[in-house]
Amino acid sequence: MKHLTLADEIVVLMLRDDTGAIKPARAGSANIAIAGGILMELALLGRIDTDLTSLFIVDPKPVGDEFLDHALQDIAAEPARRSSAWWIERFGFHNGDLSRKVLGRLVEAGILREEDRQFLWMFSRRAYPKNSGREEREAKARLMSVIFDDTLPTPRDTLLLSLADSAGVLDEMLSPEEVRKASKRIAEVIALEEIGRSVQAVESIRREVVAAAANARLS
Amino acid sequence: MEVKNEVADGVALYRIVGKIDALTGPDLQAAAGSAINAGSPRIIFDMREVTYISSAGVRVIVLTAKHAKAANGGLAVFGLQPAISEVFEIAGLRTVIPIASDETEARSKLGA
């Protein structure tokens, strides 16, 4: 891995230091954020482009990253033009556990290590503690800079912010008061990128569906 | 996409015709970037004949504005067609760069 993709970075940011795992309640958000991160990376690499209605291939040449190239092949093989939201749902809901795949990449790259941890004396759970934690610190520093500096962010940082917001990372990084104060800036930055807006829309629908299902179970 | 460039009164003006997308955007960004690096950080995009802009095109606008601002200049645009204006509105670009109705106003917004 030459550098972390946005999908890698959002998983690093979502991993909890105490458990070495993504919060179970955030698993659905993680899949959507990773799916969005894959599309964003392909867009930044000039392989796909989007507009208000569709996502399309610009250059089908592989990028040399198996994870991204799989997605690029899927997009190239789809006969109809689909929206970015459609692709986020497709990759996020129908591609198995994306976070497990990304965690495997991060272990291979030496950014995480894999451990089996005991809990309740008899159960074992896989944990992914960070090795140096440098990648997480750098990603957080970039997010803080985007949120609190008044300068125009780079497209990569804009996209990372939209993933972090949809995946609930900002709520963990900032106090409720800081989130409230920065909410206008966060919304303005996220609006700049179409795929970022689509990730937010898909995540919002997912949350509504989860809430409706929970209400149905209670009634 | 076709681009005609003219520099007058310390402003580099780009008259753009056609689409700004992932295929054409890099050329526009490179052209404006050259002007900024050569000491003309005040940039105007004449977009009266721009018929389409994709997300990659929006990225070119943002990156050019960022580059120009970092050089103590700025980017202003004018002449947005309704379809382009809709994209700018949704992306919130009005809060990021000055959008003018004509060239005179664009120059004025850049202090030229």
Overall body shape of chain B? globular
Cα-atom radius of gyration of chain B: 12 Å
CATH superfamily name of chain B?
Answer: STAS domain
- Please bin the fraction of helical residues of chain A: 55-70%
Structural class of chain A: mainly alpha
Total domains of chain A:
1
Across the major sheet of chain B, the strand order is: 1-2-3-4-5
Quick structural gist:
The complex is a heterodimer of chains A (219) and B (112). With 219 residues, chain A is mostly helical.
Describe the secondary-structure layout.
The complex is a heterodimer of chains A (about 220) and B (about 110).
Chain A: H1 6-14, H2 27-44, E1 48-50, E2 55-57, H3 66-77, H4 84-93, H5 98-108, E3 115-119, E4 123-127, H6 134-148, H7 155-166, H8 169-173, H9 176-191, H10 194-218
Antiparallel strand pairs in A: 1-2, 3-4
Chain B: E1 2-8, E2 11-20, H1 25-37, E3 42-53, H2 55-70, E4 74-78, H3 82-91, E5 99-100, H4 103-109
Parallel strand pairs in B: 2-3, 3-4, 4-5
Antiparallel strand pairs in B: 1-2
Helix pairs in contact in B: 1-2
Describe this structure in words.
- The complex is a heterodimer of chains A (219) and B (112).
- With 219 residues, chain A is mostly helical.
- Chain A has helices at residues 6-14, 27-44, 66-77, 84-93, 98-108, 134-148, 155-166, 169-173, 176-191, 194-218, and strands at residues 48-50, 55-57, 115-119, 123-127.
- In chain A, the strands form 2 sheets. A two-stranded antiparallel sheet of chain A has the order 1-2. In chain A, strands 3-4 form a two-stranded antiparallel ribbon.
- Chain B is globular.
- Chain B has one domain: STAS domain (Transcription Regulator spoIIAA, 2-Layer Sandwich).
- The longest helix of chain B is centred in the middle third of the chain and has 16 residues, at 55-70.
- Chain B has helices at residues 25-37, 55-70, 82-91, 103-109; strands at residues 2-8, 11-20, 42-53, 74-78, 99-100.
- Chains A and B meet through strand 1 and helix 10 of A and helix 2 and helix 3 of B.
